[in-house]
Specification:
Length: 142
């Protein structure tokens, strides 16, 4: 699986998702994924029993994201496009470093996480990136 990681293409790390999940009381969590190549997906499934995966066709996935009430941003242009059409969104979890949106988020609770140090980090190889992606805690916090 590590050989599938693209060095320095930054998916949000596990600790980003873990923090969001543990600060909220979500009844269930739906991951809209293309495949399981990101090691974080299996780690989430192993650690949280209320997570389900969906990987429908692109139209169904787009509709799911368009209708979500809570959305955790990722490095996906697909989901970032779909969220722009969402009129049901209540909570939006993101980072300044992910995407620049032109959507009006005035009536939405936006929680921005500081992932600047993570996005500025470079990795020498896929093993180093893998080991960082699956960290339980933010190593930049002191």
């Amino acid at each position: 699986m590590r050989e599938n990681l693209v060095i320095n293409f930054k998916h949000p790390p596990y600790y980003f998702y873990k923090n969001i999940i543990e600060q909220n009381n979500f009844l269930y969590i739906l991951l809209v994924i293309e495949d399981k190549s990101n090691p974080i997906i299996q780690k989430l499934l192993d650690n949280y029993k209320n997570i389900k995966i969906t990987s429908n066709d692109k139209y169904e996935d787009f509709k799911i994201i368009m209708n979500a009430h809570h959305f955790v941003n990722s490095s996906s242009s697909f989901s970032s496009s779909a969220i722009l059409f969402n009129n049901n969104l209540k909570n939006f979890y993101t980072s300044d470093r992910m995407h620049n949106y032109r959507k009006n988020f005035d009536n939405i609770n936006v929680k921005k996480y500081d992932l600047t140090n993570y996005y500025n980090k470079t990795f020498e190889n896929s093993d180093e990136m893998y080991n960082f992606l699956v960290l339980e805690k933010d190593p930049f916090l002191i």
